[in-house]
Specification:
- By secondary structure, the protein is mainly α.
- The chain folds into 3 domains: 20-179, no CATH class; 217-322, no CATH class; 327-374, no CATH class.
- 43% of the residues lie in helices and 2% in strands.
- It contains 11 helices and 4 strands; from the N terminus they run ααααααααααββββα.
- The chain starts with 22 loop residues before the first helix and ends with a helix.
- The model is unreliable at 1-27, 41-55, 232-240 and 369-374 (pLDDT under 50).
Length: 374
């Protein structure tokens, strides 16, 4: 007698590979907002229905968030059904995005060349662009009102305060690149050339840069007016404060009585005016030129960097381009300039597409794996 055929059951503990588990990586690329939650919930159902049916590429215009959501849904379904490998997904993105997508990319800011080929970064930047639907500042609109309108739009889309700040910062980068704001600020504050990647700046620093460029003429005229009164104010301060200190044998450079010994303020730089050989509490200046904390001219005690966090060293009371921290000019892991220390390197959590190791960009990879295969 012949034994009936039995079905072959795979051994326990060994799950057969299934494509159903692969799209989770794709879904994780979607930012968490209300529209994306609905899209993420319906992706599995959409794949099963459309897998064997021809799907046409949705139209994409430069100012429609709904069309972008439909296009993105098609893109995720397409790379799943075609089983596009991860390293080719960005190429497929550029192939399908069309002329509208390329025109939008011209206004997007990328901190490095590798970011332009990173699918997660691309999707985030396009999400931000279509969140604001290509909104631009009107000529008759103040910056304060424009920033408030951006925050109002972001709050309706993002589901947390962190995402709101992230969306606003990305929108500022896009607008400032389009308006060539960074080039203008570099002419005003030449030391700004120390900053090579503007994505490392905080939204507060970005807003300050835009303010300085937008109202540069008004600020310059007010500074000129104050400078005319500066000599009179310095004499007044000298008469009221410095002369009484001399009568008490108190040094007017450091504020102490050091009885002929070397003044502790000798060789020290004042953090208020930037001059040498006196402490901040003894500074006679009422108008600060080329402030060592913000890089601009302003009235005493009116520094815009006060109580603001530096995006480079994470300390307060100065901006990144005035930071005195040790800087690496060309990092071996990312190729950019940043503060010394691996935690400050933008490639710390990056996965190399060449060797699949963490901690460096693909452009700085030293692996010989590909050459050995040849």
């Amino acid at each position: 007698m012949h034994k009936p055929a039995t079905a072959v059951v795979p051994p326990t503990g060994r799950a057969t590979p299934s494509l159903r588990h692969r799209p989770q990586a794709l879904e994780s690329l979607l930012p968490h907002d209300n529209a994306n939650d609905d899209l993420r919930a319906g992706m599995c159902c959409t794949r099963s229905k459309l897998k064997n049916a021809p799907v046409s590429l949705p139209l994409l215009s430069a100012h429609s968030r709904q069309e972008w959501i439909a296009w993105r849904r098609y893109f995720f379904t397409h790379i799943h059904d075609k089983d596009v490998p991860i390293y080719r997904q960005s190429e497929e993105f550029f192939r399908l995005i069309g002329e509208v997508g390329y025109s939008i990319m011209k206004n997007l800011y990328f901190g490095s060349i590798s970011d332009e080929r990173n699918l997660e970064i691309l999707l985030h930047k396009f999400d931000v662009y279509f969140t604001f639907c290509g909104k631009r500042k009107r000529p008759d609109e103040t910056l304060d009102n424009y920033f408030k309108s951006l925050e109002s739009i972001a709050e309706k889309t993002a589901n947390s305060r962190a995402n709101v700040d992230k969306y606003i910062k990305e929108k500022l980068l896009q607008d400032m690149k389009h308006g060539k704001i960074f080039e203008q600020f570099l002419k005003i504050v030449p030391i700004f050339s120390k900053v090579s990647n503007y994505e490392t700046l905080t939204s507060t620093e970005l807003k300050f840069i835009w303010y300085e460029c937008e109202y540069y003429e008004d600020i310059r005229k007010s500074c000129q007016l104050i400078e005319k009164l500066e000599p009179v104010r310095e004499v007044s301060i000298y008469q009221k404060e410095i002369q009484p200190m001399r009568k008490k044998n108190i040094c007017f450079k450091c504020g102490h009585d050091h009885s002929g010994r070397r003044c502790p303020a000798w060789g020290q730089r004042c953090w208020k005016c930037g001059d040498l050989n006196h402490f901040l509490r003894c500074c006679p200046k009422t108008f600060i030129r080329d402030c060592v904390n913000c890089g601009r001219n302003h009235i005493q005690f009116k520094c815009p960097a006060y109580a603001k966090e530096c995006s480079r060293c994470k300390k307060n009371n100065h901006f990144a381009w005035q930071c005195l921290g040790d800087v690496i000019n060309c990092c071996d892991y990312c190729g950019q300039s940043h503060l010394s220390g691996r935690n400050n390197c933008p490639a710390t959590k990056n996965i190399c597409n060449k060797c699949q190791k963490i901690g460096h960009f693909t452009s700085k990879c030293r692996s010989r794996r590909n050459s050995l295969r040849k």
